[in-house]
Design goal:
- The structure is a single chain.
- The protein is of the alpha+beta class and 224 residues long.
- The protein folds into 3 domains: 51 residues, Structural Genomics Hypothetical 15.5 Kd Protein In mrcA-pckA Intergenic Region, Chain A, CATH 3.10.290; 76 residues, Alpha-Beta Plaits; 81 residues, Alpha-L RNA-binding motif (Alpha-Beta Plaits, 2-Layer Sandwich), CATH 3.30.70.
- 18% of the residues lie in helices and 30% in strands.
- The chain has 5 helices and 15 strands.
- Strands 5, 6, 7, 8, 11, 12, 13, 14 and 15 form a 9-stranded mixed sheet that branches. A 4-stranded antiparallel sheet has the order 2-1-3-4, with no helix packed on it.
- The chain is elongated, with a radius of gyration of 22 Å.
- The structure holds uracil.
- Uracil binds next to helix 5.
């Protein structure tokens, strides 16, 4: 978190006033004056103002099983149900935000946190954090489509990375396929676009794993 925001969150002053205090050399980090409001406060930094330590905001983590029909943002212009509406009333005022997105119609693992460092690591493609989705696709998936999903697909001039793909079931009566796919990147609507591109559009999509976190069938669970 930037130093200016850190001070404001610590209740020292408004964002604007905090910035002024920093620019005027009133704030110390590990005993040294820092005059850069955009300085990124690290986990072990000790920030002081007027000889008092500015306490860190408590980090919170919620592991949510997102249902369908909920936007994975904290606000929605169209007034739809948001991911914050899934939290208990006493948890609602936390300054949390979702780590990555799940589409309105997608379900499954979503992490909410105010831990910017963790959010950064989980979402930056260079960290190659695996995310696994269980997809019900329209049609009986072919070996060729499976191969393309696995090796990479051209999407709007971008080639998707190698993915792990496992066909769990082909339902000849319903004419659907159940496919598990693990990707280590997260472009917008990536899984839906990949399946569309190989000719088997997604009927339903659920994220079952995010990194090493797993959601089973329980509804809302959170941990600190
Ligand atoms: N990929 C998608 O297409 N949608 C999601 O919700 C998540 C991953």
């Amino acid at each position: 978190m930037k130093l200016g925001k850190y001070l404001a969150h610590g209740g020292i002053a408004s964002r604007r006033k905090s910035k002024e205090l920093i620019l005027n050399g009133k704030v110390l980090v590990n005993g040294e004056v820092v005059t850069e409001p955009s300085y990124l406060v690290k986990k072990d930094d000790v920030v002081t103002y007027k000889d008092e330590v500015v306490e860190k905001e408590e980090l919170v983590y919620y592991l949510v099983n997102k249902p369908r029909g909920v936007v994975s943002t904290v606000k929605d212009e169209k007034g739809r149900k948001t991911i914050l509406d899934l939290l208990n009333d006493e948890d609602k005022d936390e300054r949390v935000y979702p780590v990555g997105r799940l589409d309105y119609d997608s379900t499954g693992v979503l992490i909410l946190t105010n831990d910017g460092e963790l959010a950064y690591i989980l979402t930056r493609p260079e960290y190659e954090v695996p995310k696994t989705y269980l997809v019900t696709a329209k049609g009986i998936i072919t070996r060729e489509a499976e191969r393309k999903l696995r090796t990479g697909i051209e999407l709007d001039g971008y080639r998707t990375r190698e993915a792990k793909v496992s066909v769990k079931e082909k339902n000849n009566q319903k004419k659907t396929s159940l496919v598990e796919i693990t990707i280590t990147e997260g472009k917008n609507h990536q899984v839906r676009e990949m399946f569309k591109a190989v000719g088997f559009p997604v009927k339903s999509l659920t994220r079952t794993h995010f990194s090493y976190l797993v959601i089973f069938t329980f509804s809302n669970c959170y941990f600190y």
